Amino acid sequence: MSDRTVGVGMIGYAFMGRVHSQAWRNVAAFFDLPVTPRMRVIAGRSKDATEAAAERLGWDEAVTDWREVVGRADVDVVDICTPGDTHAEIAIAALRAGKHVICEKPLANTVPEAEAMAAAAASATGKSMVAFNYRRVPAIALARRLVEEGRLGEIRHVRAQYLQDWIVDPDFPLVWRLRKDKAGSGALGDIGAHIIDAAQFIAGQHLVGVSALTETFIKERPLAEGSAGLAASGGSGRGAVTVDDAALFVGRLSGGALGSFEATRFATGRKNALRIELNGSLGSLAFDFEAMNELWVSDGGRGFERILVTEPDHPYVGAWWPPGHGLGYEHTFTHEIKDFLEAIGQGADPTPSFADGLRVQRVLAAVERSAADGSRYTTVED
Amino acid sequence: MSDRTVGVGMIGYAFMGRVHSQAWRNVAAFFDLPVTPRMRVIAGRSKDATEAAAERLGWDEAVTDWREVVGRADVDVVDICTPGDTHAEIAIAALRAGKHVICEKPLANTVPEAEAMAAAAASATGKSMVAFNYRRVPAIALARRLVEEGRLGEIRHVRAQYLQDWIVDPDFPLVWRLRKDKAGSGALGDIGAHIIDAAQFIAGQHLVGVSALTETFIKERPLAEGSAGLAASGGSGRGAVTVDDAALFVGRLSGGALGSFEATRFATGRKNALRIELNGSLGSLAFDFEAMNELWVSDGGRGFERILVTEPDHPYVGAWWPPGHGLGYEHTFTHEIKDFLEAIGQGADPTPSFADGLRVQRVLAAVERSAADGSRYTTVED
Amino acid sequence: MSDRTVGVGMIGYAFMGRVHSQAWRNVAAFFDLPVTPRMRVIAGRSKDATEAAAERLGWDEAVTDWREVVGRADVDVVDICTPGDTHAEIAIAALRAGKHVICEKPLANTVPEAEAMAAAAASATGKSMVAFNYRRVPAIALARRLVEEGRLGEIRHVRAQYLQDWIVDPDFPLVWRLRKDKAGSGALGDIGAHIIDAAQFIAGQHLVGVSALTETFIKERPLAEGSAGLAASGGSGRGAVTVDDAALFVGRLSGGALGSFEATRFATGRKNALRIELNGSLGSLAFDFEAMNELWVSDGGRGFERILVTEPDHPYVGAWWPPGHGLGYEHTFTHEIKDFLEAIGQGADPTPSFADGLRVQRVLAAVERSAADGSRYTTVED
Amino acid sequence: MSDRTVGVGMIGYAFMGRVHSQAWRNVAAFFDLPVTPRMRVIAGRSKDATEAAAERLGWDEAVTDWREVVGRADVDVVDICTPGDTHAEIAIAALRAGKHVICEKPLANTVPEAEAMAAAAASATGKSMVAFNYRRVPAIALARRLVEEGRLGEIRHVRAQYLQDWIVDPDFPLVWRLRKDKAGSGALGDIGAHIIDAAQFIAGQHLVGVSALTETFIKERPLAEGSAGLAASGGSGRGAVTVDDAALFVGRLSGGALGSFEATRFATGRKNALRIELNGSLGSLAFDFEAMNELWVSDGGRGFERILVTEPDHPYVGAWWPPGHGLGYEHTFTHEIKDFLEAIGQGADPTPSFADGLRVQRVLAAVERSAADGSRYTTVED
């Protein structure tokens, strides 16, 4: 392992904090890195919970103020795993303090916030990256490689869905992800952002305009623990859902492809079905995260080949296990951290950058404008 | 078999004529029908080809003028298997002559034609039906039954794609299906019409508005044999493609569901992937015609059940073979003819009716208007 | 259509009679044949039922004695669709009468019967064929083609299962297929014979020895209508099952491959899962009849290609519908009849011959001997 | 995390050492354990390689003699990840030294060794476990739960295959896994042992007799680095393969089920296809490790449900990520270590025990005896 170490500080210890910690703790056991991470400090609002998380997840220290993390000399990298409403403030402070920053997606809750973050990144000495982890699914990285090599020819169709069902029950509580002030948007920003980024990444084209519909099927939900601060809108303990439950749109991409996108949390029976299909003049490919070790590829002949993306020459895979011994969800984060550390070590710019994150944010904004404006075709700002 | 016979006359002997003939020839061997069809006469423009078709396909006689079929006393049923530009004239004449009429889809090339046909059907003594054969895939009929029984609860999402790839090659010739004057539209009317009808049928809801994109990827193609009458637009033997290669839209359905639809002939590697997925508050279902004997159903639990739709209690299936001995494409037509003959025998109105066909036509028109008008959300006429 | 006609007489009108009739009725509409079949006469024991079958299935006449069919001058082909205990007598009589004979599988109930039939066939002027219809599944015919072309290299493994579940219920009645005197054996001869023939056909190797187990899980069953002639063995209306419910064996093939075979009617949830996988030094292929239009092929790389066997250049497929418009169970019989008629017309010997049927019979016998003799490795007679 | 710690010493640092280390390093971050593991020491023959492994994999120290590990006071648990020929000596020494022992599979290279190990385990104060990790695939643990609950009824069929292809190339070198003196057997002990254990575990029945075939397709291979000590048997640098390439057998299980098993390294295109299917009187289930997060379950109706085994109430899954966010190969080891540590903490006996490992060893021996003795049905010793 490299003697050059980088100290890491993480903000947040919930779902994303747990999985990022897993990546930090294991990345050096599998990849030869130019710099070795040290898990210095984790920050959270609750002292007890943060200390417990630190011990369990492997962080040296726990603090209750993110500013302390940003200010520490032994922290080189700040990893932001908090809800979207706090990303801009933390990331900009960390960049100004000369830190490298990796920030969960979506980059921010609004385009202006994302612009400020991208501007801060552009003028910073530290490296920055937005954590669209699905780019690091080996099958998706392989898909990108095939497109780059021209195996699909000219891309005509990009078809992407992200289908979940965790809030189908109308009594599921009003968690922070269902409140616009915390989450920015609903299915759109949470999972729609992933398919927008992943599809643009694979296709090597970006959305230039969209015609969109959004919908909130369940307008009110029981207040959750943790959402108790909300004023109940309808009497006994229910509050308004202020984000979309589903967002779908058609659009055009910069290279001439047509796009069809759909993000929903109401696809009963679909758990984490991030699906992408591309059709080109020479071939096609299809992916579904529910079978994440498989990529389906057509060379234009009579069918699709199910490639088990577990061969040593597949992206990231050589570091792990023999063929057929698949990887899981968490490995996408290990790969992301690996690429981030390599960029830091080599002085290169990691991707997806904050500018890439801003681009996705602008698509999200165009979707919302189109939906609000009679689904009219709405140009994505440059 | 019933002693009541109905004489049948068919117009057209190409792809649709062949498969309809197969249905007429075999339906009485498998289903107990109130009336027994007699294959009296087939009409086509070429005398030799029509006579050869008659012998091969099992028709008693061949004629070269469709009017002769419509005028014959021994013909009770007229089956229209010609391109869309001729549907209105033939169907209206046949209905006025007191015949029962089954007409290939899409019902017509324009809304006014379809309106005239629906009006003729409404005032006719004969029965009429538009041949959206995919309603008679056992798996699709079963899907409809499940929705009708409330197994899916309230439908939130309708997701339908019809993906083919037969014109990906830019040197594929300019056949009649690529000319607006003959076919009305391209992928939209040819295959998009099928998923619109099938999805509306299963969901029990109809599209009320759409936001659409259409595209023609290959603008000119070599003139085909049979398209030789065309003026070459660009010099040596090429002509303009005047229909869409792909059409995609999002929309809203009458019962509150959101719809996402896509029809394309440029999905390399997809041969006849008519796919429909519905998500409801209690369950979901998914279908792909490339595996036509399977229906995937979720009851809202942890996954989808792959139902092999080959059980005796499944729609249409009891007439055929034991469980697991699947059916093919042609059987959808046999089922359609069976239902049509039953309706005739019972004096009932078969579905889908010409009014149903008109409704689909209006969706096609709304898609074209939306695509022409900045993808704006466009109301489907009532 | 050819002016040379051959008169056809069929013995039996149950399941196999219905599906063979479907083939005779339709084959000339899809294939250019050197001889055209005429459906002259069908024979069955019940006068009423046979006459009803004749009308429904399209036969000119009905008779109640199979000898009448064999003796008629206007019958050139005899099609035997009766239980196995009658095959030898009928087939030998028909061959001696100079008829062409197609006989359902298994060829006979015993090796001596099969030997007599093969001997009769060898010295007959008529052509003969045993109806292993699964050879005519396009995917299986394509599989054979790929092996023949050397695409799989040297075959190392042949893995075949035929899984059904129609008698899992212990109250399913004692039908003729569960009685040794009528059926010869149980799962072994009924469905095991199919996978033995199909696997040997695809591999181009035959089984030379086997080590087998058989089992009868449910020893007694309610007497069925039609089994009323049986003496109840255990009191009130139950009779002994005298055939195997399941048969499984490992074995060696003539070309050095290892085989693993399993036939059972107790695979709950499997309806007609005839599955074959071959592994060779260069590639592999896999098939499951429950998805009969698909063949999975590996070229030794990273996975399997799902080939939709619906392309014009695939075996038999060009006569039918466009790509992606699948075929069903019955088409395997149409293909079989087509090949049989072509052989008759060309004076060629159709396959599988009675000698091929005898070879399968000898494997069945070796399986039974091995199972009876401590599963010892038992040589298949030459 | 618990204050009770157990010191762990590992022998071996190759494939199994890497994946076991990953489990030790992470188990406490996800599971609440009664004892917390400390990764004290790793042993290997090469000093440099062992030290590098220690640093990379997270062990405090590296030593070159396994006896040192067994003798250390700060080591409570010995984890044996070496080839099979060393298992007995190390395990027995460790048990005698009062350590808890987890040992890679197969338990030993011979039945006498395994018997000695089981005897040592029975009289030891430490706990012992054999590392059949596939029992800890959540889908397999769920399968066991379903059988235990009676959901499948009486089990009739157990069908298991373990298909790999990593030595199809005849120029693949003669590694230790291809030498009987090191590995005991070939595909049989390496992967056949896994399906024997997993199938017996799920079915709750054990094999009582087998009829088997084994084969070595490629008799000689190039000497590998590391196999240089071998005398070349055929001249320039090739040595004899002394183990089976494939082993297949049919057999009977203690509860009346029939079994069909096949293990091969010559299934071209199959990478790690550990497949198990059980058919019972009420239902069936099917699994394939190449899609390890899925279990297919039939309730005897019309098909199989694809259960995504990622729900909180599925075995082991609640500790990880939300539904649909799948696990990978390595997690089976984390689950194994978790169960082992729980047993240690609670003073319970972990499973599979050395006695269970011995039982598998006896099946392997019966397979070899049967194969050597004309595939005769051979009783598995008790």
From TrEMBL, chains A, B, C, D:
UniProtKB keywords: Oxidoreductase
The keyword Oxidoreductase is annotated on this UniProt entry: yes
Pfam family, one: GFO_IDH_MocA_C3
Residue ranges occupied by any Gfo/Idh/MocA-like oxidoreductase N-terminal domain in the UniProt entry: 7-131
InterPro entries named in the record: Gfo/Idh/MocA-like_OxRdtase_N, Gfo/Idh/MocA_oxidrdct_glycsds, GFO_IDH_MocA-like_dom, NAD(P)-bd_dom_sf
Gene3D superfamilies per record: Dihydrodipicolinate Reductase, domain 2, NAD(P)-binding Rossmann-like Domain
Domain annotation GFO/IDH/MocA-like oxidoreductase: ranges: 142-285
PANTHER family the UniProt entry points to: BCDNA.GH03377
Protein name stated in the entry: Gfo/Idh/MocA family oxidoreductase
Organism: Nonomuraea ferruginea
